[in-house]
Here is the input.
Amino acid sequence: MTPGEVSLGVRLGTRIVLTNGCFDLLHVGHVRYLQQARTLGDILVVAVNSDRSVAELKGPGRPWLCLDDRVEMLAGLTCVDVVVPFDELRVTRVIEALRPATWVKGGDYTLETIDPGERAALEACGAEIVFMPLVEGRSTTGLIERIRGG
Here is the structure.
């Protein structure tokens, strides 16, 4: 993805909320997180890592579901307005292109642990950074362990 490839055709003053992730095994924790994120603005954009970048970030055997399936499932959620796939490891270029009012991540992140390039891009566009609480007992890792019988 390059800046300029994403055009939402939104009116001036529309509050864009951006979140990103692998979403390689969609679960109720993701859904609740996305529903909460949607309440923070007018449009929720979900940037989704490509299959290649998920494998690089998460290791062999991931993602569990291909990019097309992940995009279709996310786009089917009523709280999600736009899904944007990206091939990089970091969402920095999407941030630069969309200039969101708010960027949302799960509670497993902090200001200190987000990627410095992503943080710089968010600060450059004046985005508010929000960390949503995790849903207890709901995680991709936990779900994978249950599927594997662990």
Summary: The first helix runs from residue 28 to 38. The chain has six helices and five strands. The CA atoms of residues 1 and 95 lie 11 Å apart.
